Amino acid sequence: VGLIVKTAVSKSSLIDRKITINNLSAITEKYKDSKCKVYLLHGNLSPAQINSLYRSEKINAFTTATHGEGYGLPVFEAVYNGVPVIATDWSAHLDFLSGPYKESGKVKEKKLFARVDYKMGEIPKHVIWKDILVEGAQWAYPLEASYKSQMRKVYKNHGMYKKWALALQSRVLETHKAGIIYDKMHQSIVPLEMRSETKRKEVTDEIESMFASLSEG
């Protein structure tokens, strides 16, 4: 088993890479008897390079111990590519981690990922950030025992979790088509009086142009 970590301290510079390696090494040094290899990916990757990670035959699952990330684009990218997900059972990624699944002859809505239990608690004082992370706000802290247990389950019964992942993939390919997302954005940001078909097309064209510019950049 190996773990691929894509991370940085703050930037993609050579200095940042050195600091990141030192930080990661300080952690792995505590577990010298571990049989798990740890690979560090540092620096900018193109969309194609990022996608190749999810598509690789050597990648069997995506895991996150997020405590307050919100939507979490990497989680969605894993689902979009049919990769089993191990994640904290809390936060905005739950919006797309459920889908219809047939069990015992019945189709029902089911959470189709390895769910890590958590405990709610206040954010640390040192991360308080004016108007962003306010005092008294809470994070969902994943429980270590549950996290380990879920990883073992995915390892031992990968076939089942892969079926879940493919079911989720099928769901998001329908629910998150570009046109559907553009329309939801349009409904959210455009005043009701501007929602004529003509105005809708103008705004949709603007949104598509914005995304095209971001992709090219």
Q: How far from one another are the termini?
A: 36 Å
The number of distinct β-strands equals 9
Structural class: alpha/beta
The SSE order reads EHEHEHEEEEEEHHHH
Count of DSSP-assigned helices? 7
Oligomeric state of the chains present here: single chain
Average pLDDT score: 90
Bulk shape: globular
Cα-based radius of gyration, to the nearest Å? 20 Å
Strand content: 15-25%
Strand order of the largest sheet: 3-4-7
Biggest sheet layout:
3 strands, parallel
What would a concise description of this structure say?
The chain is an alpha/beta fold and 217 residues long. It is built from 7 helices and 9 strands.
Structure overview:
The protein is of the alpha/beta class and 217 residues long. Helices cover 44% and strands 19% of the residues. It contains 7 helices and 9 strands. It is globular and about 65 Å long. The mean pLDDT is 90.
Overview features:
alpha/beta; 217 residues; globular
How is the topology of this model organized?
Elements lengths: L1 E5 L7 H15 L8 E5 L5 H9 L6 E2 L9 H8 L4 E4 L9 E6 L2 E6 L2 E3 L1 E5 L15 E5 L1 H13 L1 H18 L2 H12 L7 H20 L1
Parallel strand pairs: 1-2, 3-4, 4-7
Antiparallel strand pairs: 5-6, 8-9
Helix pairs in contact: 4-5
